[in-house]
Amino acid sequence: MTNINPQIEDSWKQHLQKEFRKPYFAELKSFLIHEKNNGAVIFPPGQQIFNAFNLSPFDAVKVVILGQDPYHGMGQAHGLCFSVQDGIKLPPSLLNIYKEIEADLGIPMNYSNGNLVPWARQGVFLLNAILTVKAGTPASHQGKGWEVFTNAVIQKLSDSRKGLIFLLWGGYAKQKKVLIDESRHTILQSGHPSPMSANQGLWFGNNHFSKTNVLLKQQGLQEIIWQIP
């Protein structure tokens, strides 16, 4: 955990170096070290905290999906929002994401594989607002500095890039709308894919996956292959 800031892809490191030098980030780093020194198990593992950044370099990002904080169960989180590691059962929200992709695009999804690395490699930036969590304790690292950092990330993408598609699912993600310049980017909003929201009719039928590909095609960009092998 002591090497928290170097473990990030070079283009992101260049864009975020000012954030790494700010007092809040030093405090965040100290908090994580203290947690670990006191026996806390932290997810995701240290080398995977910045997985979303490492798999989607700054200039390769085309789509941004925002989550809240990592899964807190053993072996689930690996630094990509909504995604789980190989061999882990699909969490309820991801299950509903797969169902919407099937309905939207008419393609079969592999319900035995919830690892979304193939999306990240295509420029789908799978960013949680909070990048770490204590095992078994959801939102345990809320308010420790991660939100300041990830808000800066969203702002940097908004200010420095053009034509990005931001998928804001649920109330928490929608709060980030104020950080995004809508004259430069497209925002697609819907309810959260969690069962509670989906059962209220706020998720299914949003067609965000086909809409995203239409928007990418209009820019002359490669469409996302949403099907997970």
Task: Characterise the protein shown here.
Strand 5, helix 7 (170-174) and strand 6 (186-190) form a beta-alpha-beta unit. The protein is built from nine helices and six strands; from the N terminus they run ααβαβααββαβαβαα. The longest helix has 15 residues, at 23-37. With 229 residues, it is α/β, with parallel strands linked by helices. A four-stranded parallel beta sheet has the order 3-2-5-6. It has helices at residues 10-20, 23-37, 51-55, 92-105, 117-121, 146-160, 170-174, 195-199, 208-218, and strands at 42-43, 63-67, 124-128, 133-134, 165-169, 186-190. It is globular and about 50 Å long.
Which class best fits the helix and strand makeup?
A: alpha/beta
Largest sheet: 4 strands, parallel
Computed CA radius of gyration, to the nearest angstrom: 17 Å
Distance between the termini: 33 Å
